[in-house]
Write a structure and sequence with these properties.
The structure holds two protein chains of two kinds.
Chain A (H helix, E strand, L loop, with lengths): L2 E5 L2 E3 L5 E8 L8 E6 L5 E7 L6 E3 L7 E6 L4 E6 L8 E7 L9 E2 L3 E5 L2
Parallel strand pairs in A: 2-11
Antiparallel strand pairs in A: 1-3, 3-8, 4-5, 4-9, 5-6, 7-8, 9-10, 9-11
Chain B lengths: L8 E4 L5 E6 L8 E6 L6 E4 L13 E6 L2 E6 L8 E7 L6 E2 L3 E5 L1
Parallel strand pairs in B: 1-9
Antiparallel strand pairs in B: 2-6, 3-4, 3-7, 5-6, 7-8, 7-9
Chain lengths: ~120, ~110
């Protein structure tokens, strides 16, 4: 069974940094692309970033490009999101998601970790 | 940037059919997925590649996609289907989500 467990969320001041982690289990982590998707309180879903498999090619939403960095450690089955220069509008529940059994969908999701950017 | 537009809300009586649309430029040329999200829960994939159902998703969920519009149809709607629904497609960015539709079962 695919399991994704996010951690690292919390309260941070505007301009600050935070690193999120997503521990994966139940599948061969290294051969699947991974994503971060966020949801601001009371709002819709927003795809944030994606990282491919071993090659590590990365993609970002325009809203976070240049501020966020996605990475992965296949030896630890862990996905990361380094978030710098945080803004109030980055406040959201951040989900880790993958397309384990589908090519163009997010079929497996974690429970999310909450990031609050506020002074 | 590519955008997907959904109606903010849809109301349906129990046992009736709920239809949720998702509009985007030439959406019919892209694979569309649909997600169900209940309060306090993570999204759940209910339709992928326009019309396929993941294992465990009831047959009352069906999808189609043509032209500029993708559609999620819930037949014989149950109270448990009350949730937010999001469409999603792949464009130059890996994941574009629709604006979301709240389905209320009255």
């Amino acid at each position: 069974e695919v399991q994704l467990l996010e951690s690292g969320g919390g309260l941070v001041q505007p301009g600050g940094s935070l690193r999120l982690s997503c521990a994966a289990s139940g599948f061969t982590f290294s051969i699947y692309a991974m994503n971060w998707v966020r949801q601001a309180p009371g709002k819709g879903l927003e795809w944030v970033s994606r990282i491919s498999t071993n090659v590590g090619k990365t993609y970002y939403a325009d809203s976070v490009k240049g501020r966020f960095t996605i990475s992965r450690d296949n030896s630890k089955n862990t996905l990361y999101l380094q978030m710098n220069s945080l803004r109030a509008e980055d406040t959201a529940l951040y989900y880790c998601a993958t397309n384990y059994s589908t090519a163009y969908s997010f079929d497996s999701w974690g429970q999310g970790t909450l990031v609050t950017v506020s002074s | 940037s590519y955008e997907l537009t959904q109606p903010p809300s849809v109301s349906v009586s129990p046992g009736q059919t709920a239809t949720i649309t998702c509009s985007g430029d030439n959406l019919g040329n892209k694979y569309t997925s649909w997600y169900q999200q209940k309060p306090g829960q993570s999204p759940v994939l209910v339709i992928y590649e326009d019309r396929k159902r993941p294992s465990g998703i009831p047959e009352r969920f069906a999808g189609s996609n043509s032209g500029n519009t993708a559609t999620l149809t819930i037949s014989g709607t149950l109270s448990m289907d009350e949730a937010d629904y999001y469409c999603q497609a792949w464009d130059t960015s890996p994941g574009i989500f629709g604006t979301g539709t709240k389905v209320t079962v009255l």
